Amino acid sequence: MKKSVPWITLSILVIFSLSSWITYTRYKPVPPELEVVAAKHALEVQPVTYSLRKWGRTASADINTEPAVLVRESTPLIVDPNDNIELLFNHSPDSVKCYLWEMDTGKLAYKELTAYPLNLEASNIASGDYALEVRAKWENGYVLYNARIIVNGDEH
For the whole model, what pTM was predicted? Predict the structure, then answer.
């Protein structure tokens, strides 16, 4: 009986090491989730482009398409020009920049909006249909998210 105890212990350690290695080799970092909220309306936004690394593992995706094209068929978040748009990440980023692209033309309308939460009135955002591009950075990488918002109200 005494001779089998070391073998059993060694077997358990080998099994544990193998299962840990298999888990590690299959691991991929996952982009943080984002929910865009304005006036008690929420919209879950999926990552479009990202590059992340964690524990020596990397994950990336690159959709090289204009934001207005990506969100054309998406359900828009309808906001007023005096609303604040909150960006709720499940892991807070180190930095966030937002861009608004015109849906009709695909041209950049407002760049590098850095207020957090995004204050539409302070940024002087006009009424219109926009693709919101959110660029978030973390210590371990970056993620780009796109959503469609309609600013509904009087022109500034």
Answer: 0.79
Q: What is the dihedral of CA 92, 93, 95, 101, to 10 degrees?
A: -100
Q: How many percent of the chain have pLDDT more than 70? A: 90
- Asked whether the beta carbons of 35 and 45 are under 8 A apart, the reply is yes
Strands 77-79 and 141-151: parallel
Q: How far apart are CA 74 and CA 153, in angstroms?
A: 21
Are 79 and 42 spatial neighbours (Cβ–Cβ below 8 Å)? no
Judged against a pLDDT cut of 80, whether residue 101 lies above it is answered with yes
Q: Would you state the pLDDT for residue 112?
A: 85
Q: How confident is the model at residue 155 (pLDDT cuts 50, 70, 90)?
A: very low
Domains and CATH numbers, the chain: 34-151 (2.60.40)
Q: What are phi and psi of 53, to 5 degrees?
A: -140, 140
Distance CA 124, CA 119 (A): 9
Tell me the C-alpha distance between 70 and 89, whole Å. Answer: 21
